[in-house]
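Case study 2.
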Amino acid sequence: MGIAIDRGTIKSVDQSVWDFYDKAATADMNERKEALQIRHLLTMTSGLNVSTPVDIAMYGLAADAQPWVQTVLDRPMSNQPGESFSYADSVAQVASGLVNQATGKSAFEIAQQDLFAPLGITDAIWMSDPQGVSTGGDGLS
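Prediction:
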């Protein structure tokens, strides 16, 4: 995310998530969900109702099922964004997908080019979802 902001493909953490995702294609859209900013994804204060069972279910989605990121965005809101902290790998997946949307590259591709290569790291592996989005909450080694 920081590299994308540095390059200007993402303006700032205060940018709306909906600059990158389709509000009209998202379930349970309301004023609280419309207020979702990148900052809320990064600080785990999204307000999305994503409990541990949602995280676990996300990893079980088949390749032909709804994309993981959309599955998370379709969740109802439990709080106003920024109101309370609730860690969830699924929210990190939305942030990773946002990097894809903004740059046309996966977080792994960006990390390989701009982070790992300059550091001399050549054997990194990063899992991705069936849509090619680098897993946001884990899977990097």
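The chain has one domain: 2-119.
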